[in-house]
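Re: [ENG-882] Designed sequences occasionally contain unexpected residues at chain ends

Forwarding the minimal case from QA. Structure tokens:
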């Protein structure tokens, strides 16, 4: 939604040029605050939920290994994110078009990339639902 709003401001007002010759869109940086709050809260709750799951469901000898594997999964996710960006740049910047993610984002369609990420997240959630349905919880002793 932020990218759609940014593109709307760009179309309405264009870019401004400051004294140094740098161009910028007349939009406040504080438009990003809600997105960062949501992402930060999601990461905190995800990490706490994973930690509780591993300590509750993993065998006693595997708890720290599972926590380490979760951190490794986050690292692999960051590498996958970089690979997705590179693939999108390569696939969309053909025939002289700037593509979705050009060097100057005002020439591209970053919003299309965010929609692609939303579709991938929905697919990931579907895969999670399939795996979660087959999972059998370990009985805990109170």
């Amino acid at each position: 939604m932020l990218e759609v709003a940014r593109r709307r401001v760009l179309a309405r007002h264009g870019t401004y040029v400051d004294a140094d010759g740098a161009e910028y869109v007349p939009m406040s940086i504080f438009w990003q605050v809600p997105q960062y709050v949501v992402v930060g809260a999601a990461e905190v709750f995800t990490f706490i939920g994973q930690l509780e799951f591993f300590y509750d469901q993993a065998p006693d000898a595997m708890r720290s290994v599972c926590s380490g594997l979760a951190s490794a999964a986050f690292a692999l996710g960051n590498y996958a994110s970089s690979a997705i960006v590179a693939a999108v740049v390569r696939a969309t910047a053909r025939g002289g078009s700037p593509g979705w993610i050009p060097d100057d984002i005002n020439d591209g369609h970053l919003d299309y990339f965010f929609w692609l990420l939303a579709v991938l997240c929905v697919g990931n959630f579907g895969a999670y639902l399939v795996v979660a349905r087959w999972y059998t919880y370990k009985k805990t002793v109170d």
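QA comment: On inspection the terminal residues look reasonable. The chain has a mean pLDDT of 85. Proposing we downgrade this to a documentation issue.
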